[in-house]
Specification:
By secondary structure, the protein is of the alpha+beta class. It contains 4 helices and 4 strands. Helices cover 61% and strands 16% of the residues. A hairpin with a 2-residue loop joins strand 1 and strand 2 (71-78).
């Protein structure tokens, strides 16, 4: 069966869309990794300035990126003191029966990273 002009056009469009999808997938993976690494670096700096020093907590921030079919995901976490981040961010009970207030140092960084990620994704989609 001979191909008509419509069949060729359809095949060409499918090829272009497949190439665009592959390029976009690679770009989004790179953006995800970049933002996660920036977040870990920013949290190290914020933790040092909020809690002082260069202790174990401040130096423990790291990121991990995982590539799955159709998307990449990233997690930023404190490998040195995993449970401490929650207690410092949200507050906790003190041994003498009182309450220690939390110091919001993760939430502002998260909000900034979300904004940057959205901008980078839009730029990747546009091809900028």
């Amino acid at each position: 069966m001979a191909k008509t002009a419509g069949d060729k056009l359809s095949a060409d469009i499918q090829k272009i869309l497949a190439e665009y999808g592959e390029t976009l997938d690679k770009d989004l993976d790179a953006v995800t990794k970049k933002i996660a690494q920036k977040g870990a670096k920013t949290l190290k700096a914020v933790s040092r300035s909020t809690f002082g020093g260069t202790g174990k907590y401040a130096g423990g921030w790291t990121s991990q990126t995982e590539k799955r079919p159709l998307h990449a995901s990233a997690v930023i976490y404190n490998s040195a003191a995993p449970g401490l981040a929650h207690l410092l961010e949200n507050g906790h009970a003190s041994p003498n029966g009182g309450r220690v207030p939390g110091r919001a140092h993760i939430k502002p960084v998260e909000e900034q990273l979300v904004k940057e990620y959205e901008e980078e994704v839009l730029n990747a989609i546009k091809g900028d």
